[in-house]
Amino acid sequence: MNQVLEKPKIKELKEILISPIITHKSTILAQSKCYTFLVKRNFNKDQIAEAFEKIFGAKVLRINTTVKRSKNRRTKKGYRMSADLKKAYIQTDKELDIFPKL
Questions:
Q1: Alpha helix (H) ranges present in the chain?
Q2: 17, 51 in Cβ contact below 8 A?
């Protein structure tokens, strides 16, 4: 009954990191070399770190991830579920020019 979970197949590394999250909190964190990204839900920390290092060329020191669960939203046509979102807070060894300067 032991099932081996297969790793998701990656066509491109950019599939993992969907987009950077640019908010007031994330721009403050970027000053301390911590960057916030929206990532696909089915990837783990090791895969996120590998993709980040290959795309940006910076060494990843640590990653914290959070998952925002879906909620029921009321619309004109009834109720619908919002999507699950996963955020990755990525601490690097050097500064990157991803976010706008304040």
A1: 24-30, 45-56
A2: yes
Residue bearing tokens 């998701």: 8
- Token couple for 5: 């979970």
**DSSP single-letter state for residue 99:** S
Asked if residues 56 and 76 have their Cβ atoms less than 8 Å apart, the reply is: no
* pLDDT beyond 60 at 4: no
Domain 13-92, second-level architecture: 2-Layer Sandwich (3.30)
Backbone angles phi, psi at 82, to 5 degrees: -80, 160
Q: Residue 59, CB half-sphere, CA atoms under 13 Å: how many?
A: 2
* pLDDT tens string 80-93: 888 888 999 999 99
pLDDT at 9 over 80: no
Q: What letter represents residue 44's amino acid?
A: N
Q: Which two tokens stand for residue 86?
A: 């996963």
Coil/strand/helix, residue 2: coil
Element (H, E) at 92: strand 85-92
